[in-house]
Amino acid sequence: MRLMMKITIPVAKGNAAAKEGTLGPAIQSLIDSINPEAAYFALEDGKRMGILIFEETDQARMPVINEPVFMALEAAIEIQPVMTAEDMHRGLGIIQ
Question: Domain of 45: which CATH number?
Answer without folding.
Answer: 3.30.70.120
